[in-house]
Amino acid sequence: MDDQTKFQFDGRITQRAAERNALLLATDDARRIELEPRYMAQTAHLTCPATVWKYVEGAVQRSRANLVMLDLEDSIPEGDHRALAQGRSNVIRALNELDWGPRLRFFRPRGMRLDPGFEDLAIVVAAAGRNLEGLVYPKIEGPDELRSLEQCLDELEQTHGLEPGRIKVEVLIESVQACQRAHEIADVGRRLRGLIFGAFDYWADLGMPAEEYRPDHPLVNAARVRIVEAAAGIGVPAIAEMTLDYPTSDKTEQQRTQALEQLRRDCELARGLGFSGKWTGIPAQVDVVLEAFAPDQAAIERALHEALEYRRANQSGRGATMINGRMADRATDRINRRLLRVALALGRLDPQQVRELGIDD
After folding, report:
1. 159: which of 142, 150, 218, 351 is 20 to 30 A away, CA to CA?
2. Nearest to 259, CA basis, from 249, 245, 279, 240
3. What is the rounded CA–CA span in Å between residue 174 and residue 11?
4. Pair 240, 197: CB distance under 8 Å
């Protein structure tokens, strides 16, 4: 006699539990965002002042960045209407006329405090919405602000005949309050494709004038961890802050070398804490960031081998198994598949190699 037939249980109890839990599972699944492959490949962002056309052209057409953001916030003096008009015009022109290649097409509006009516967004979407992929929204403070932004995007897309949900959003976490509410912000963002750390605004918000900013300060690292966790909770990348010591042409060779070494150290710190990529301020920083965040080829090959072996083990009726003397289970398989998706998005993996795994859909 089967052991299970020795016991009687009330199937109505399990049925009610199944119905309750189906709703819980659906709610949990709805929180996670299914990233398009292009958004898996966010290792180097390049921010560019929208007011200077030659910089816009260079960033859009010649940089190797995965995402280019044309800036209407920090690059424009507050109250300078002429510069704002020029910046908006350049954003629209760049979206409509330039060949962006594989780069994600983003711009940064001024945010709610400087632009409470979201006029930057309304003007750009009206003139170039069909060519806009997303925006980096600055200085967000809480989930209600993101809800307001997404409602505005809903209305603009409907007004201009754009596909609903077309325009994606990445938010800058730049204050103590925003950092504390990072999980709440992430949970309400249907359009979110990344959380970005604004470390220097965050440091200013801490109000520590006697302490000089340093990248590895415990408070800064604590903020990084919270942002990485919030991003991971919904399945989007966390993007690290900019390194402000630029290797510019007005510096000596030694100074440029030191600036690039600092950038590499910052990349290593960010990657070690779980960030997927980093902001850059000039094209000379992009190559270093791309190299620092590129998946290691040996790690890619190991992940592919282990994922295939784990799948074969499951198909043969085994769950957790041993691969090359190491235990492999669902958790290790999730880690491997995540790495393989990123490698595939970056063009580091042949789609034929991963078809059997079903991660190239």
Report:
1. 142
2. 245
3. 52
4. yes
Q: Residue 193 pLDDT more than 90?
A: yes
Per-residue model confidence as pLDDT tens digits over 70-106: 999 999 999 999 999 999 999 999 999 999 999 999 9
What percent of the chain has pLDDT above 90? 78
Q: Which two tokens stand for residue 94?
A: 């760049």
Measured between its terminal Cα atoms, the distance across the chain in Å is 45
Per the CB < 8 A criterion, the answer to whether 135 and 107 are in contact is yes
Judge whether 205 and 176 are in contact, CB under 8 Å. Answer: yes
Q: CA 181, CA 230: separation in Å to the nearest integer?
A: 9
Write the burial class of residue 13 (CB in 10 Å: 0-12 exposed, 13-18 middle, 19+ buried): exposed
Give the span between the Cα atoms of 200 and 154, in whole angstroms.
Answer: 32
198 contacts: CB under 8 Å, gap ≥ 6? 138, 139, 172, 173, 174, 241
Cα–Cα separations (whole angstroms), residue 167 to 143, 170, 232? 18, 10, 21
Q: 325 pLDDT exceeds 90?
A: no
Residue 361: per-residue pLDDT: 46
Please tell me the distance from the alpha carbon of residue 146 to that of residue 341, in angstroms, as a whole number.
28
Q: Which two tokens stand for residue 106?
A: 């983003």
Pairing verdict, β 321-323 and 104-108? unpaired
Mean pLDDT of 37-61: 96
Of the candidates 236, 197, 246, 235, the residue with the CA atom closest to the CA atom of residue 219: 197
Residues 333-354 pLDDT 10s? 989 998 998 998 898 888 777 7
Backbone angles phi, psi at 170, to 5 degrees: -125, 135
% helix / strand / coil in the chain, to the nearest 5?
Answer: 55, 10, 35
Q: Cα–Cα distance between 93 and 79 in angstroms, integer? A: 23
How far, in Å, CA of 105 to CA of 158, rounded?
Answer: 20
Task: Tell me which amino acid residue 7 is.
Answer: F
